[in-house]
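Quick one, tokens below. Sequence please?
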């Protein structure tokens, strides 16, 4: 029996520097969660969320035996550029 694919949602926000704070990030997480709800209820996939993601948490999820080789989608919300994701400290 094949296991369900995993959708991994990771979000990070700068809570220290007020000008860098992404105030709509919680809305993005909520909207993404709601959009995936039908698929989760139908048993088509599993969703793993890390709302204040650190690099350790992200690596841990990718290496976790429960999710390893099943992560089909990795969605990151937060500050980033073409070379890096900016995560929680």
């Amino acid at each position: 029996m094949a296991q369900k694919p995993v959708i991994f949602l990771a979000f990070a926000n700068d809570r220290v520097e007020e000008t860098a704070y992404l105030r709509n990030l919680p809305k993005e997480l909520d909207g993404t969660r709601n959009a995936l709800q039908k698929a989760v209820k139908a048993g088509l996939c599993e969703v793993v969320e890390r709302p204040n993601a650190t690099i350790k948490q992200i690596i841990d999820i990718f290496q976790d035996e429960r999710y390893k080789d099943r992560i089909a989608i990795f969605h990151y919300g937060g500050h980033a550029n073409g070379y890096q994701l900016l995560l929680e400290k």
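The two ends are 39 Å apart (CA to CA). Helices lie at 25-41, 55-63.
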